[in-house]
Every structure is written in C-alpha cells, then in structure tokens.
C-alpha cells in the first residue's frame, strides 16, 4: 500500500495572498507609490531580520510588542535576532548607519513589506502582516505632522474609502510633560485599583497610560474622570498641537480629538493619530503613527526630530474588498484571448499573441487546439476584454473577428490593424 504524503498548510496567522486578491494589493501599493512620491518620499528597503536589541531599545522594553509578540531567536552563529515587528526602528537604524542626513537633512522615506508579531490570530490580525509606512526625518514643525496626515488621508480618499473611516488625533506631550502627569494618573488609578482588571493593575505600575486601551467596560467606567494629558500640555506642545489641527482643517481633513489615544509603541511624543473603521470589527485601526523626536538619539544617532505612520495593508484590503462587493464586476484588461477553429488558425493565433505581448499588450491563446466552447470559457475567465476568433474564413480575409466580452458586440479587424487597435485601447487605460 502506498503511504499518503503529508500536505502542508500555512502556519497559523500567516496567509498566502492569492492571484484572485493580488489586483487589490497592487492597486493599494501602486497608489501609495504614486501619491507618496508626489510629496517627495523615496522608497527604502531594510532586512526582515535585525538585532533583537534594536526593537527592545526602539519600541520600549515594557511594550506588549516587545514583551509578548516578537519572533526572536538565536541564529546559527549565536546572534540573537528578531523578525521585524514594525518598520520605524529599522529605518532609523539605516538612517544612522548610512549617515543619510548628510545627503539630505530632511529625509522623506517610505517602505512596504511584511512585519511579524506573535499575536492571537483573528480577522484583521495576523502574525505575518504587511505595512506601508512613511518616516519623515529631520523636521520638527507641526506642519510636517500635518503633511503626513494630509497625505495619508488623501491616499485613503483616492482608494475610494472616503466616508468609511474616522481619523482620531491626540497629543502625548513631551517626556518632561508626561512624567508629572503619569504620577497624577497613577495616584488616580491607585484609588480605584480594586475595581481594575489584572492587566490594568499591572499597567498601573509598568505603563499607566496604556490602561486607556483596556477593552473591559468596567475598567473604562473607572477611567471616566481620569486626568488627561492633553489638558496639561505646556504652551509649546499646545501650540504644536493647535498648528497641527489648523493645518488639517485648512486641507479639509476631517478629524476627532481623542485624548485617550496612547499608541502601543513607546517612542511617540506630541502628535499621535489613528485611522479607524467600524467596518473592521475589533481590529478597527488600519493606520497609525505620530511624532518621535527621541528615537534617533536613543538608537545612537544625533538628536533628530521625526514623524511617520504605518498602514495595516490586510485591514485596508478588507475595506477595499467590502467596497468591491458592492461595486459591479471588476473591469477587464484591454487585451485579447485568441480562439482558433483549426490548426492553421492556431498558428496565426500564436503569432498574433506574440506580436501583442512584444508590445506589452496582454494576450493569451491555448497551446493545443481545444473545442470552441472550452476556448470561449477560458477567454471569459482570462479577465481580458476581447476574444479574437480565427477560422478558415478569417485567415483567407486576413482578419480577426473580435468579440467584446462585456458588450457581446463583434467586429472584423484586419491583421495589420490588430496592434494599432489594442495600442489605442491600452493608451486609454
Ligand atoms: P502600529 O500601530 O503598531 O504602528 O501598526 C500600524 C498598523 O499596522 C496598525 O494600525 C494596524 O493596521 C497594522 N497592524 C499592526 N499589527 C497587526 C497585526 N498583527 N495584524 C494585522 N495588522 C496589524 C507601527 O507599527 C509604527 N511603526 C507606525 C509608525 C511609523 N509610527 C511612526 N512611524
């Protein structure tokens, strides 16, 4: 008896992105490149593996990401390495390592790619997920904070997501403003300690501002009158926040001030923001970011103010897919699937297919002659806009019977006119 071979599956929280979804991903990525480059951002690509300490120092040793979610292991040479859980620390490492500020004191960078966090998988929460991120280094102005948020909002609008999300903003003050505030918050929480969940009791000691993220309603009830940092900002941080808000308003960006936004990574100060959508269930944040003026110095560089964000691609794809479900069928690609009636016309079909492909026009035809029905079925499934029918009569008259697969309308096009016909269709794309 032959033994059945084991079939492998992706490991939990890590997904294949299948051909049926790839158009949505490419749409997202291409739009990001086009828009971000209009604002002067250039792409940077950093390795997936970094020294584990980069993230411990960069993100903060008390954060959930560092404490519980990092894929950290010792490699064969004995080095402790981590699969990157986010992109900011890596970009800052590259900025310092290659003294990038030498070429340009104001550096605008973007990146896209997989990130890894060992979280409990659920809808919109994966262990390998993808981010598109932006880091604007070397500028302290609130106008830079506004510029990246305006760009991000315009980007989501251009994807067709307008009206489907909320932008929430906050100011986290500077470290010196936070210290006295944290003491005040701790004493408020200590008075209610008995009513808090276990995690909030821990956070009260390790990272009190994160208690606001608790999903527990009874904890949230205790926080109703908690002191808020935004009410205790010093004049320079207040002014920074006011300029940020005014600039967003000027650009027509709709936002809400949410004094409870803390963010999960420790490097933020002053501006913090999140884009959320009620259509995503419990994993509602699909982009987030803020200002981080201490991180470059913390990672060994010279003091450099910076601001940035990252988009959670899987969550944006979920939003785009729900849009597409409501929309009519996806548009077909302006190319041709050639259908042949006999071996002679198949030869011509292969020739015309090559001609179109050589001119970067999508074209297909079968390798072997199949029934007309099965070829038409393949033409329909190909996503191409036309079927080009070739039989004895067409060969004699040196023409193709082109059938528009959307309208069903057919027309004869001479062999010599096939290339101009499809070139014109592609230039209209
Ligand atoms: P973050 O808020 O940790 O920020 O992540 C940004 C986005 O990545 C989230 O809003 C979410 O959409 C997505 N995301 C995070 N974890 C997961 C997951 N397990 N599964 C699916 N999506 C996820 C950062 O990473 C910062 N580096 C952003 C930044 C850049 N701040 C300044 N510059």
Summarize the structure in short:
By secondary structure, this protein is α+β, with helices and mostly antiparallel strands. It has helices spanning 19-38, 52-59, 64-69, 88-97, 142-158, 175-190, 198-206, 217-222, 235-250, 295-298, 313-326, 343-358, 372-381, 392-396, 415-427, and strands at residues 42-43, 49-51, 71-74, 80-83, 107-116, 128-137, 166-171, 256-257, 271-276, 285-291, 306-312, 333-340, 363-364, 384-390, 399-404, 410-414.
Please give the alpha-carbon distance between the first and last residues: 57 Å
Helix content: 25-40%
Oligomer: single chain
Strand content: 15-25%
| Bound heterogens, unique | histidyl-adenosine monophosphate
Strand order of the biggest β-sheet:
1-5-6-11-10-9-7-8
Mean pLDDT: 95
General shape:
elongated
Largest pleated sheet: 8 strands, mixed
Number of helices: 15
Extract low-pLDDT stretches.
Answer: none
Beta-strand segment tally: 16
Protein described:
It is a single chain. This protein is α+β, with helices and mostly antiparallel strands and 429 residues long. The chain is built from 15 helices and 16 strands. The chain has helices at 19-38, 52-59, 64-69, 88-97, 142-158, 175-190, 198-206, 217-222, 235-250, 295-298, 313-326, 343-358, 372-381, 392-396, 415-427, and strands at residues 42-43, 49-51, 71-74, 80-83, 107-116, 128-137, 166-171, 256-257, 271-276, 285-291, 306-312, 333-340, 363-364, 384-390, 399-404, 410-414. The chain has an eight-stranded mixed sheet. Strands 13-12-14-15-16 form a five-stranded mixed sheet, with helices on both faces. It has a three-stranded antiparallel sheet with strand order 2-4-3. Helix 12 links the parallel strand 12 and strand 13 (363-364). Helix 1 (19-38) packs antiparallel against helix 5 (142-158) and helix 5 packs parallel to helix 9. The protein is elongated. The mean pLDDT is 95. It binds histidyl-adenosine monophosphate. Histidyl-adenosine monophosphate is lined by residues 86-88, 117, 119, 124-126, 129, 131, 133, 135, 264-265, 285-290, 292, 308-310, 312, 314-315.
């Amino acid at each position: 008896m032959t033994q059945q071979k084991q079939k492998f599956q992706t490991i939990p929280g890590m997904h294949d992105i299948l051909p049926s979804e790839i158009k949505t991903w490419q749409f997202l990525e291409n739009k990001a490149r086009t828009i971000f480059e209009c604002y002067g951002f250039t792409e940077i690509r950093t390795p997936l593996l970094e020294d584990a300490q980069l993230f411990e120092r960069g993100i903060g040793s008390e954060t959930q990401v560092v404490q519980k979610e990092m894929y950290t292991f010792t490699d064969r040479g004995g080095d402790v390495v981590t699969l990157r859980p986010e992109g900011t620390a890596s970009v800052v490492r590259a900025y310092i390592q290659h003294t990038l500020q030498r070429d340009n004191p104001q550096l605008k960078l973007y990146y896209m790619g997989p990130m890894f966090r060992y979280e409990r998988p659920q809808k919109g929460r994966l262990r390998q997920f993808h981010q598109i991120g932006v880091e604007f280094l070397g500028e302290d102005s609130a106008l830079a904070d506004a510029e990246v948020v305006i760009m991000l909002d315009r980007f989501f609008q251009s994807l067709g997501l307008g009206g489907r999300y909320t932008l929430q903003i906050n100011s986290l003050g500077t470290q010196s403003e936070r210290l006295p505030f944290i003491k005040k918050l701790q004493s408020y929480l200590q008075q209610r300690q008995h009513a808090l969940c276990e995690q909030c009791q821990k956070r009260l000691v390790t990272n009190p501002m994160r208690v606001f993220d608790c999903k527990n309603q009874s904890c949230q009830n205790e926080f109703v009158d908690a002191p808020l940092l935004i009410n205790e900002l010093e004049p320079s941080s207040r002014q920074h926040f006011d300029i940020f808000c005014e600039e967003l308003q000027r650009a027509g960006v709709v936002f809400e001030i949410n004094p409870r936004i803390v963010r999960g990574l420790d490097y933020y100060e002053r501006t913090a923001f999140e884009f959320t959508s009620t259509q995503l269930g419990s994993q509602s944040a699909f982009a987030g970011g803020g200002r981080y003026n201490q991180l470059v110095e913390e990672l060994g560089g010279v003091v450099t103010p910076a601001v940035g964000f990252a988009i959670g691609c899987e969550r944006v794809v979920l939003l785009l897919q729900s849009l597409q479900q409501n929309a009519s069928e996806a548009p077909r690609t302006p190319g041709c699937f050639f259908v042949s009636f006999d071996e002679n016309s198949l030869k011509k079909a292969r020739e015309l297919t090559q001609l179109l492909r050589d001119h970067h026009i999508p074209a297909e035809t079968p390798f072997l002659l199949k029934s007309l029905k099965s070829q038409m079925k393949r033409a329909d499934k190909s996503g191409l806009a036309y079927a080009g029918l070739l039989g004895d009569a067409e060969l004699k008259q040196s023409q193709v019977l082109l059938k528009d697969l959307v309208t069903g309308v057919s027309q004869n096009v001479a062999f010599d006119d096939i290339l101009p016909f499809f070139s014109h269709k592609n230039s209209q794309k």
